[in-house]
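Researcher: Last one for today. Full complex below.
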Amino acid sequence: MENILECRALTKTYGYRTALSNLDIAIPRGRIVGLLGPNGSGKTTLIKLACGLLTPTAGQILIDGKAPGLESKAIVSYLPERSYLNNWMCIQELIRFFQDFYQDFQPEVAYDMLQRLNIDPRDRLKNLSKGTKEKVQLILVMSRRAQLYLLDEPIGGVDPATRDYILHTIIGNYNENSTVILSTHLIADVEQILDDVIFLSNGKILMASPVDEIRERQGKSVDDLFREVFKC
Amino acid sequence: MLRKLLKYELKATARTFLPLYGCLILFAVINRVFVAIQDRTEHFSFFFGVSLTSYIFLIVAIFALTVFVMIQRFYKSLLGDEGYLMFTLPTTPGKLILSKLIISIFWVVVSIAITGFSIMILAMSTGFWQAMGQLFQALGLYFREYFSFADVSVLTSFLFLGLCGLTYLILSVYCAIAVGHSFKQHRAIGSVGAYLVICLISQVATTLCVQMGGFFTTRLPSLEHLLLYEKYGISLFLLFFAVMYLIFAAVCYVVTQQLLSKRLNLA
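Model: Here's the assembly. Have a good evening.
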C-alpha cells in the first residue's frame, strides 16, 4: 500500500461536540509529518482513531489499507500523551513486556538508549520523575521497528535539552520506509525535523503541505506561519 | 498471544493476592498457637481475641478483594489509562476479555482453597489428624463398596455447575461495565444500571428455561423417570443449569466483545 495512513471523510463527534469533521488525508510512507494545531483542534482524536482506541462516527480511517485492528496494531507504535504504563513495573520488566508482545521490538536499542540517558533499568516507574518517565515511554516506543509511529505531544512536558534528545532519537531510530506522525504545539522545536505539516483547526484541515514549500513559497518558518494562521 | 496476556495478568494480580494469602496463613498459624496456649492458661486471651478477629477479618478481606480486583482489572486496566497499552497491543478484544476472565476464575478458586487450607491449620491438633485419618479410611471403604459412576458424575456436575455459574457471574459484570462504557456520559452509573438489567434478563430467562424444562420433562415419561428416580437424574438436573449458565455467559461474552471491538471510545 502506498499510503500508510488514509482518512476518507473521517468524522468523530462526542455528543454535540465535533472533534473531527470530514477529514480527507493521505500520508505516504517514509515521511516525518507534523500534526499541528492549537489545543482542542483534534490532533489527539485523529491519532487515537488511527490506533483503534476510538471508533469513527462516520467515514473511514485506514492503516496500510485496512481498518484499525489486529494487523494495524502490529505495525503501529503509539506514544500517548499520558502516562499509560504500569507504575509498579520496573523498566526491565517493561522491556520484556514489549518484547513479548511486539515482534518488531529491539531490546538492545532500548537498553542502549537507557544507558545513554543514565536511566537504570532496574528502577520502578513509580520512582521516576515525570520527565524520566516520558523518556522511558518514548524509548520503548522508538525501539520498535514499526511502519507508523504516532507520537502525541512527545516533547510537551520536558526540558529543552531532553526535547533535543527526543527529536534526535526520533530521526535516529526510524527507518526510511516508516512514517512518523507527531502532534505538537511546540513548533519551533520540531520544525527542523519535519518533512510535511498538517494544520488542524476545529477538526478540519486548514492546510497540508511539505515544509520546504512553506519556507520557499511563503518565505517564513512554519512557526511564523502557525502564529499567523492561528492568531487569536 | 492469550498465553502472554495470561502471564502478564497473573503477574499483575499476584502482587495483590499473594501477600494477603501469606498473612492469612500466618494468622492461622498464630491462632493455632494461641489455641494451644489457651488450653493451658487463661493469660494472653486478649491477644488471642485480637489475632482471631484479625484472622476472620482477613478472610472477609480476601473475598472482598477478589471481587474488587475482578472488577478493577476490567474497569481500570482495560478502560482506564492502562487501556491505552492493552488496546494497542496486537491482540483482539476477545482475548483481552478471556485473559481477565480466566485469571479472575483462578483467583476465586485459589482464594477458596487457601481459606480452606488455613482453616485446616487452625483446626489442626493431634486429635484432629487422627479424626481425619479415620474419616479418610471410612470414605475409602464407602467408595470401594458403594461408589458408582453416578456419584462421580453428580460431584463433577456440581463442580461444573459452580464453574459455569462463576464464569457467568464474572462475564455479566464485564458486560455491564462494557455497556456502561458505551454511554457517552455517566458511564459508572450506566454500568450499575446495566448490571441490574442483566440480572433481570437472566432471571426471566432462567424462569423460562425452568418452565420449558419442566414442560418437556412431563411430556417425556422416560426422562421424568430418569430425573426423579435415578442418580444420573441429579447430574442431568445440575448439568441443565450448568449449560444454561454457560449460554448466558456466552451471550455476555459476545456482547462485551462486540462493544469493545466496534464501540470502543477510550477517554
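Chain A touches chain B through 25 residues (CB under 8 Å). Residues 160-173 of chain A form the longest helix (14 residues).
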